[in-house]
Amino acid sequence: MEELKYVGKTFERSDAVKKVTGALEFVDDMHFQRMLYAQCVRSPYAHAKIISVDMSEALKLPGVRAAICGDEYPNRAGLYLEDRYFMAKPGDTAKYMGEAVAAVAAETPEIAEAACKLIKVEYEELPAVTNALEGMKPGAPIIHPDLAKYKIASIFLPEAGTNISHHYVLRKGNFEEACKQADKVFEHSFYVPHVQHVPLEPHACMARYDADGKLTVWSCCQSPYAVRQALSVAFGMALNKIRVVSPAVGGGFGSKAGTTLEGIVIPLAKHCQGRPVKLVYTREDEFVNAYVRQGMHATIKTAVQKDGKILGVQNRFVWDGGAYTEYGVNITKAGGWASAGPYDIDNVWTDSYCVYTNHPVGGPYRGFGMCEIHFAIEQNIDMVAKAIGISEVEIRRINGIRPGGHTGMNEQVDIAGYQECLEEVIKDIEYDKPCEPSGSPTKIRAKGIAGGWKAPSMPTNAGSSAIIRMNEDGTFILMSSGQEMGQGVSTVLPQIAAEVLSVPPEKITFCCGDTDYTPYEWQTVASRTTYCAGNAVKLAAEDLKNKVLDLAEIKMGAVKRDLEFKDGYVVHKIYPDRKYPISEFALGIAFPDGSGYGGPAIGVGTYTLENNINTDKKTGLAIYHPAAYWTMGANAAEVEVDTETGNIRVLKMSSCFDAGKVVNPALYCAQAEGAMVQALGTAIFEELKLKNGRVLNKSFMDYKIPTADDIPEFSIKYVEHAEPNGPYGARGVGEPLMVPGAPAIANAVYNAIGVRFTRMPITPDDVLRALREKKE
Amino acid sequence: MKKIHVRFYINEELNELDVQPNRTMLSVIRDELHLTGTKVGCGAGECGACTVIVDGKPVNACLVLAPEMDGMHITTIEGIADHDGNLSPLQKAFIDHAALQCGFCTPGFIMSATALLNENPTPTRDEIKHAIAGNLCRCTGYIRIIEAIEDVANQNKGGAN
């Protein structure tokens, strides 16, 4: 293969100048004439019937232009499960504390707030479900009595008359037989609490309803097309009458993947035709009313031989899905898919339950269930190794996936760099060597490792498209709806097009995020964009190139196979002196008599996953490939535990993943660093504290995320086993890079003080309590 | 509510405004002057996204009441590059080090670091970490931001030789 010129090299971010100058306009920065400000009334109960909503006093307040309640919503909507109105309806129930029950639009934010206080809502409080394990038991209060009637994607299995919106089942081999053959069987349980994504930009949305019936929505959303679809369903509007624009996304991590506050703003805009209505979440809103990462209870049984070979695992995952589980059902499935961890195990039985609770709405968070299950899986594997007396490295070498190995779904994985990644982080952190002394007898240092993997969990036919146009001067406009949210898609996708067209990436301007102008993309989630949108972009660039070469055949009197794009020219391969700048073909070709032919150069690329087939519904087993690819790797961490204060400092983290092909090395490393720091936050700081359905820590004062003071030394490596169907061999990495971080830290903490923490985060209080108990 | 007359310089331009006394400097900067590079991340002085430089010091604009702006010399992110758009060495370093991702916190970091470098052109890594400890970022993992600031500190050291 010819050496790549633009893929695999670091290029400056295409959005950098706008970002360092503050010039990039986020939704909250947009200021339109005659703009109105929205505010919501929210349920003070975790679970309550809404008897009545009286808005008359609010409407009398000068400056109030509209007030709405749940009556405005004809239909339920949701991505995989249509289980929610965008506002709780009178006569129905509010299902979490903070759910919107009414909203107003007013001339100023102050008037909007005052008007909300004048809206009278009568509630009848109902018993609430505030624990998923309790919520799945018979006799628990039922949160969605109409579950059986909801529209749901066919792969999901809700249990009518319960709070279980999906029961995922996987039956590979026979776990009971494996137990009989095993030397030992272990059972360990873990708990992962709710956490918040904490994008620095709080959710914001503005909507305007024009006289001709066109609705324009400006929203900081990751997936404009998914938002458009949900709004179309919820309000019964034709898709061509809705335009969703996502001008910028100030951090997503999944929290902006779905449709949230857009649904609140739209009816207000409808009642104030021609006037833009804006709603911006406060930080407090962000903690409670944006998606949260679901809590998860895990129990893992492991049947193992004394030589370390794992014969079988049985997993039970119970997810605290919150009030609505339009996404939760699929996270539950994704957790089931990957439930064996990056290990090749013959007998895997998994039951993964998505349970409605009266908690904030669970949604996708970087990793889509993987961070949660791997906190359990990767500590469990260390616990099993220690119990049978082999090293945590050895048990991973024995059982870790290799090329040609099989997932828990029995899907064959031909490209699997896991073992190399494991060896790389072990080498990098010098796992076998003791840590440098801390200089204090009460500060104990140790190292830990963990692996992880993830496959994009998306509809098997998710689609992507791209359009590329050549300008008259040989520069390009590339349009896709792979959304830039910081991960670098607006730099990486032009690099892929640049490679095809043999022009530097700065000659390609990237546009995304406008359903009227940029072409369809299912969603910017699942670490799928470089792969899926990347394939569409590559096909679009190839289409343009092909069309130009058709014209070049005529203009240059040569056959196509002898022509190529090279450094901005169409060049004859055999007679390289015969060449034309590509710009000569931008508007078609001109003949000496003045006539023309061909038209402007435009390329179109459409891509659908190839041959991804749903798993067998009864057993969960792969029929063919259910997943586009598996991204896998490992982390090692070195920690220092202060036995006097209970503080944990993470000193170093090493990362190595099989990235397929790294398109932009600097951006890859930046993703890895950010992912590990997010993992560190969940491991030792972060928990959304819930009591009787109430979020107790809804500010940065009470919910700490890592600062510059908390970061470790980083070492980032990667291996590149090309993904056969990925653009130039690339596969997705953004989420997987976070997956092994938290368990690697937890394993290092165990190795330091001999205490196993089966619940995250591991706080100083937890450490001190555990040390005290250990002493006793 | 009676408005209060204030006179202040923002990015070296004189402004005179009548402000509502219960509004914040952040609201005046964003909603009245439409300088939207200064971001609202929490409204409580905990995230640093609204950092501006007031009389040489980094300040959370969300914690200053509008009437207090009277007499202040304020620099926002819009005042860091020159009028022709030439970026400051720190802005260039952020780009060179890929020290930004979503870009929402970036102006705040640049303001905190600019204030640091103005006061101490050659800070140590610890001094840098301390100076940006009040700025939250969820994307980058901070290290590239630290390295970008260090890069400018090193350039400043070179200049002193």
Can you walk me through this structure?
The complex is a heterodimer of chains A (776) and B (161). With 776 residues, chain A is an alpha+beta fold. In chain A, the strands form 10 sheets. Chain A has a 7-stranded mixed sheet, sandwiched between helices. Chain A has a 5-stranded mixed sheet with strand order 7-17-16-15-8. In chain A, strands 20-30-31-34 form a 4-stranded mixed sheet, sandwiched between helices. In chain A, a hairpin with a 5-residue loop joins strand 21 and strand 22 (476-480). The model of chain A has no long low-confidence stretch (mean pLDDT 97). The N and C termini of chain B lie far apart (57 Å). Chain B is globular. Chain B has 161 residues and is α+β, with helices and mostly antiparallel strands. The mean pLDDT of chain B is 96. At the A-B interface, helix 1 and helix 15 of A face helix 2, helix 3, helix 4 and helix 5 of B.
Which structural class fits the helix and strand makeup of chain B? alpha+beta
CATH superfamily of the largest domain in chain B: Beta-grasp domain
Distance linking N and C termini of chain A = 65 Å
The CATH homologous superfamily of the largest domain in chain A is called: Aldehyde oxidase/xanthine dehydrogenase, molybdopterin binding domain
Furnish the topology, listing elements before pairings.
The complex is a heterodimer of chains A (about 775) and B (about 160).
Chain A: H1 16-20, E1 36-42, E2 48-54, H2 56-60, E3 64-69, E4 93-94, E5 100-106, H3 109-118, E6 120-125, H4 132-135, E7 164-172, H5 175-181, E8 184-192, E9 195-196, E10 204-209, E11 215-219, H6 224-235, E12 242-245, H7 262-271, E13 277-280, H8 283-289, E14 292-293, E15 295-304, E16 310-322, H9 328-337, E17 347-356, H10 370-388, H11 392-399, E18 405-406, E19 412-413, H12 418-428, E20 443-454, E21 463-470, E22 476-480, H13 489-501, E23 508-511, H14 529-556, E24 563-566, E25 569-572, E26 579-581, E27 589-590, E28 596-597, E29 602-608, E30 631-642, E31 648-658, H15 665-684, E32 690-691, E33 694-695, E34 713-719, H16 741-753, H17 764-775
Parallel strand pairs in A: 1-13, 11-12, 16-17, 22-23, 31-34
Antiparallel strand pairs in A: 1-5, 2-4, 2-6, 3-5, 7-17, 8-15, 9-14, 10-11, 10-13, 15-16, 18-19, 20-30, 21-22, 21-29, 24-25, 25-26, 27-28, 30-31, 32-33
Helix pairs in contact in A: 10-11, 10-16, 13-14, 15-16
Chain B: E1 4-10, E2 13-19, H1 25-32, E3 51-54, E4 57-60, E5 73-75, H2 89-96, H3 106-119, H4 125-131, H5 143-160
Parallel strand pairs in B: 1-5
Antiparallel strand pairs in B: 1-2, 3-4, 3-5
Helix pairs in contact in B: 2-5
